[in-house]
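Appendix B. Raw example, untouched.
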Amino acid sequence: MDIFPQKFKLLAAVIVIATVMVIAFAWLYFFQAPPQKPTETTSIITTPTKTEIPGKYGGELVVANIADVLRMDPMLITDVPTATIAYQIFDFLVRYNHETKQYEPGLAISWEASEDAKTWTFKLRKGVKFHDGTPFNAEAVKFTIDRVLDPQSKSPLSQDFRDNVESVEVVDEYTVVFHLKNPLASFLDRIIRNQGAMIVSPTAVKKYGDDFSNHPVGTGPFMFKEWIPGERVVLVKNPDYWGGAPIIDTLIFKPMPESAAQVAALQAGQVDVILSIPKESLEILEKDPNVLVLKMPGYTTFGIVFNCESEFFMDKRVRQALNYAIDKNEIVNALFKGMGVRIYSPLPSASWAYTEDVNKFEYNPEKAKALLEEVGWKPGPDGILEKDGKKFSFVCITQEGKEAEDLVTAVQSYLKKIGIDMKIQIFEYGTWVDMLVTHQFDAGYIWWAAGAGDPDHYFPFLFYSTGWANCGLYSNSKVDELIIKVSQTPSFEERKKLAAEAQKLIVDDVAWIHFYSKYTMVATKKTVGGVILTPSEGEIDFYKTYFTSPKGG
């Protein structure tokens, strides 16, 4: 499920919220449209059914979310905080098991593709009902997808659907067929698990219209009860969930934008789970006997992007020189140890397509100087490199925030050692994003959050010559060709080879300097079990969560 539309406005999810969904749930962070607040709260159910399982207890689980929700209509969701909640309310046709790296049945019990991969047939689960009692069937699937395909939908995700889906056909009550415009190897990840394909209740959509965002109705393990803006979103267990009722009776999400406040609330027992851990608190939480920190390699990557049309960076030898001039290992170890994994390519280490068989550009300042001299840059009287009377002095833009500012400051220090004057300009998030997508920079701090590790959640958006998130205006016809092949080739092994070839070229061209992919992390009270973490930010699953002792007991 990818959370990333046509323009960074999130992200994220990135420049992420890809993401990608997704992207990328990749694109979540980048498209945060003004929220539509409810005018009143709505109650669907008030008396949850208790679940008795020895050693596992229900009750009220309080989760600190990193922000208030925006729009809870899946096809409008572009931010991680809202996606986290929607994931509890809605189901997809298929699920992805991040441990086995296999797709599993969701609302569909089986599926198959035609030989040309343009026709996908899904057999649906019988006996499932939406929270409002509406039967789940093929018509509901068609209704959901047709909504996103509708140019009037205002969905930021619709273009990606329209680019790939020709139509949805109802064969019978429990069989539905997707007809695609072109073969799409990542169809299950990119379309079926895109948040726009979370199956919604047709009855509820028709009843509430545009206000469906404030009355979300799905088939998921938890049902929406109320949203008090700025205070909380309350979900209650679905006692009739097709997979079996959850153990937790009530899920409460409280917006807490400050990570430090989340940490304090967890240690004070005011919340049971926090979704954001500042790096300065990680060690403290890991040593706290009453806290459990969960983390795993994630799908969010961080780097420095070059504007390939900047007078400083048009020659790739200059970009390569700067890559040699910076000790990435030292920066990651010093600043982000425990927060992420050093990466050498555009993909996160958690991606099945990630490869380190690329030029690693190990720290080598002498090689950097030689490359720059080859291009014509020589030391001036003050030690700053000069060429044709112009100093090598450029601006790197970044967003506000300690992690971002620490990284660019470290880069600045390394470049100074070889005679390059890098100035830093810090902007608030929205301005930074706008400057990136409108290419108003020489170099910039950048990150990308995707909802899945498939290369289709990264390459087409970030490195295709006309990709909407190709902030640095990178262009390589061979890379474009490979990106299309990766997207359309059915064979998994062949896709992996093509993706590796693309990574080698992108890295050699130094479209970005790649630093690390971040862990997805949450911290819980020691008495909380069954929180299912995935590499995708926003895809945290509380379906099987429980307390190990009665809360307050």
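End of appendix B.
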